[in-house]
Amino acid sequence: MLGWISFGLIRSEELNAKRQFSTLAEGRLLEIIRSIDDIMSSQLRNIQQKMEPDSRLPEASFPEHLMSLERSDPHVRRIMWVSARGQLLYPPSPSSNTGNEYLIYNELSLMARQRPPVPIAIRRPLASRELAYPNISRLQSTQRSVSPSDSKSQADSQTQQTSLPPSATATEQEASSLDSPWQVSYFDEGLQLVVWNVRTDGSATGCWLERARWIADLVANLPDVDPSTSDGATALVDANSTVVYRWGSRSIATDVPLAEASLKEPLAAWRLRYFLPESRSATSTWLRFWPWTLAISTLALALLTLGLYVTVATTQQLRLANQRVSFVGQVSHELRTPLTNIRLYAEMASRDLTSAEPAVHRIAERLNVIDSESKRLSRLISGVLEFMQGKSKETSSAWRSVVPDEIVHQVLTQCAISLDRSGISVAKELNANRPVEMDSDSLEQILINLISNVEKYAASGKSVHVSTAIDGDILTLDVEDAGPGIPQRYSKRVFQPFFRLDDANTSPSGTGLGLTIARNAAKSQGGSLELVPSKCGAHFRLQMRIRQSIVLNKKDES
Amino acid sequence: MHNLLQYTLSQFRAAGWCLAAVPGFQEELIMMSHYSFRFYLAMIAFVGIMLGSHSQSVRAEQIKLDAALAKPTMLAGEKGLNYLKVKLTGFDLPKASVRPPVNIAIVMDRSGSMKGEKIQQAKRAALAAIDRLRDDDIVSVVTYDTNVRVLVPATKASDRDAIRQAIEGIQADGNTALFAGVAKGASEVRKFLDDKHVNRIILLSDGLANVGPSSPSELEQLGLSLLKEKISVSTLGLGNGYNEDLMTSLAAASSGNHVFIENADNLVGVFNNEFDDLLSVVASEFDIQITLTSTVRPVRCLGNKADIQGQVVRIPLAQLYARQERYFILEVEVPARETGVESTLADIRVQYRNMNTHTTDQLASKIAVRYSDKPERVESDVDVEAKVLAAVQIAAERNREATALRDAGKVDEAKMLLLKNASDLDSIAGFSRKYNFVCPDVELGCTLNKVQSEEIADESKWLRNRKVQREYQNATSQQQSYGESGKRGK
User: What pLDDT sits at residue A362?
Assistant: First the structure.
């Protein structure tokens, strides 16, 4: 939504900017057009003045004058002199009827015939000029398009003729001023320009300007590449839209102009085009509205970060909550099992007592189960509490002089009933049959946790192998089962709280804390609990620090 | 190696003229009783030489004008073609004097195709050129690709460091706006346009013009216009990709040199040669006017654009270098007359700007033709030099026709024409040997036409050979003092 709004905003700003740009560009183009017009006008004045110098020349030397002008002036391609009756006085007709010279002569006579009309004052004597040389016009009509401006100016002069009364006393000034002294013709490479000047006797001189030269003059007066301002490109194009000259940025494709304007007479068929590249306009818009864009993008970025954070946090919270729920469920389940057993066995014992012949040994058996189950319950609760209070609890004070094997015996006897029930046989290989000082509580707790894991998860293996060994100050306890085992990649994660290989409801109940508690206990005594790689089943190795016990203590203990 | 060859050739050429003069003169003395007219001519020549040598020691140097008809004696009763030779010889630059300052624009193509070795060599060549300039010379540097950039606006060469720096920064990219490049270069030269400077645009391109006016005729017109302002454009075509028609038209129209540089490594050498020319200009602003007698019809000026109006033929020439021999051959149609008649054929007037004395000097000469009914007399009167040079120019014209034929797909006809050229030049070589006249252009032209006739059908070599042909045609008609002419004999 926000994105859409900002996109719309940027778009409208872009359009606005484009409109402003094109107005600006048009203004600039008009300025250039004025300067081109100045160049052409000064060329016009220059040529007209050269054709008719102030100092009056004798009529006989006039062709000589024109010839020398034609030869020396770089702007002149050809010069012609047409009598009032439309006859070509200069140049003389070529000696042969073939070759380039003949073609040029034909072109000149065509230009002379189509020259712009002169004002009324000297128009009268010219009235018969079309009739005088009708044959030439037929001869010349090959592949030429008469310039539109020509017919237009002809029409202009007609209207002028009707509006102005004929004046017999036209001054020379009036006589030499034409509607438009320019004549546009199409020959050779395209648009050709001819400048006309009317003489006092009604004859006229025309100068066919060197096309390449006036183009070169325009080019020379237009800007070149300006490396400092590289916004956009400007092109001068001819009537066919072919680029004659371009300047500005050179990497811009000249296809769709931003602004366009026609040149003035006589180059009205030519146009100036201003180009702004798409990317450039986008960039400049971006530059103009960069605070907006920046703000929006910052906001978007912030939103994105927030969203990401929320997602991550929620996921984490959800997982944690799930784990808690699962934990509570598991703990309740764990607690209920011994409780159920206690209640069951207590009921059975009381029924035994109220029966006809109470069997004392059966009652004692049931009380034993109750005792062991309540101990298990107590262990569970203390484990959970221990975990809740803090993971590492220094319990170094609990060091006592014990025979480790005896502890193992005790635990295994304790678990014998449940192991029996699960059909798990226990193999022992105990080599720690001497008194040492150690944290026996931790050893007991860890072993119980390990054995209960075997009960829960490795019952399918039907066997557990427990071995002990003392190596200097280290007691090593190995518990190996023949169950499904734990993949190596979980060797670290199995010790993390709440981690269970299979958390499905059908999987055996468990808190997911057993191994965590066990490892914490081992670590608190400076020992370690590791999952040792094995071929089948899971193999846990506990290593604990011990101190050699004094014989006296043993005696006391025993 | 290349330079050495060119040097040897130019020496050879110069020696040729001397040899032609001396034995010819001796011959005249032996045969004077039989041919009193030739003796007369020889005496005039002798006096001319004496006067010339005299004037050398006393007054300022002058351009030498030498005009002659290939057939000073024509067969009576027949209308016929004749060739009028007008030869100008530049004087040697006096050692004590300083050469005229130059005003040059280096217009360099920096389009994408120039990338790599080409642009590096071009920069090196331009830098070497800048080093040769004197402080009062004027230089501008224009580069063009799609657009044009006036890199160094016209400035005194004393600002050498800044100019060097600008040139070193040139990089190649983009399209080729050749026309606009020349237009901008011309406007830079125009800023300091005066008759004290030798004005020149040096255009370097390796490609086709593809932005702005791009046809050979448009560039030719621009060249003609610039020549009227005494600005010449020398065009250096680099590699096999440039438009040789456009480059030769521009050079020829503006009286500049054109060189086909196959290997960018030669660029520095070519730039040096161009500067040798440029720095040795002794005369400029020529106005050569040949007025023919009313009965004689001008046909054409071989190899050069001439302005023929009625009986007046005007030949444009921008400049003449020291010791350079520049000739023009005008083909004329002479009416039939009876034997014994001797009539004026043409008046020749030459006006030029002497760059040494800064004066406008004039030269004049009159040419007459005689008629005889004895063919052997016509034969023996032949002017060896005029005949040989006319043959050289005719061969170049025919070579142009051969290029046009090949362009039109008429390979066999082009080949025949080249073969005819080779054999004609071969017989001319024999003729000139007989008179101890040595003209290297004949031998070179003969070999080139022969080689070209053999290779013209080969499509794979045409791109290169066409450039070789264009260079030969232009160098022959412009009588360029340098070029990769060694290649012509290859």
Answer: 81
